[in-house]
Amino acid sequence: xxxxxxxxxxxxxxxxxxxxxxxxxxxxxxxxxxxxxxxxxxxxxxxxxxxxxxxxxxxxxxxxxxxxxxxxxxxxxxxxxxxxxxxxxxxxxxxxxxxxxxxxxxxxxxxxxxxxxxxxxxxxxxxxxxxxxxxxxxxxxxxxxxxxxxxxxxxxxxxxxxxxxxxxxxxxxxxxxxxxxxxxxxxxxxxxxxxxxxxxxxxxxxxxxxxxxxxxxxxxxxxxxxxxxxxxxxxxxxxxxxxxxxxxxxxxxxxxxxxxxxxxxxxxxxxxxxxxxxxxxxxxxxxxxxxx
Length: 292
Ligand code: NAD
Prior knowledge:
49% of the residues lie in helices and 14% in strands. The chain has helices spanning 12-21, 45-49, 62-75, 90-102, 115-121, 132-145, 157-185, 190-197, 205-208, 232-249, 254-269, 280-285, and strands at 2-6, 25-29, 40-41, 54-57, 81-84, 106-109, 112-113, 124-130, 146-153. Strands 1, 2, 3, 4, 5, 6, 7, 8 and 9 form a 9-stranded mixed β-sheet that branches.
């Protein structure tokens, strides 16, 4: 297949490389000067899209997606499919989807879970929104770049699934970290806390698979001085997207709002930028009830 790939950063680079390694012809473009194994670089997004059956975007946010899509959509061949794997707001996804439909193109929003390791290893999970035909066109590529793809519904449904998942993740990580900090102050050993909670009703992915306490549970960024992993500022981005979405449909999400406020404080005022999102644990250990 001829594939255009726009946005070859931490995630897009290895994803595009995996497609090339599987035998596809991948033409890429990034506004930064990057080189990716197996990918032929084009001079513009438009040039990378011309003649492609599928164009994939992996960009920082919805505004950038909209501006890149304005260049891509007129350049793409009728019947081709635009697959956006970035995490963006639901409204941007739906707006670009509408532009694609009007131009005779197919659209899939397909944000991912699995991070940089999943992108490199081809083990991402894709959550997809778009028509059945559009999903079918993209599915063989999801199979190369990932281990699972769920067709969640019409355009925007993939982004909706992503921000709901990450809202739960942010809330449970905070809950897990504040519980560890409470346990510390109560004199409860962290390993004992893990042994109980990981097999009791307080268990979660944050506790069991990504334990924020160093030396406890499986290997996680906590064991590497909280080097990401999944950076706190990316969690803040996703929590903001979830609150923006909640505002737009009048959904009552008080825990999501509090998680957003705590990650904003951590990233913007407490030096949490560049640290894994599980670094909320030392943050809670070092704070007190009187700080607020
Ligand atoms: P990144 O910043 O490493 O990569 C983005 C790339 O887009 C950069 O190389 C940048 O130069 C390029 N770019 C920006 N504007 C452009 C333009 N106008 N035209 C062409 N290229 C342009 O970010 P990333 O970590 O690869 O994340 C990409 C997306 O994936 C984001 O939406 C992020 O939220 C999402 N995501 C990231 C992770 C993660 O762990 N890094 C996990 C899941 C989802």
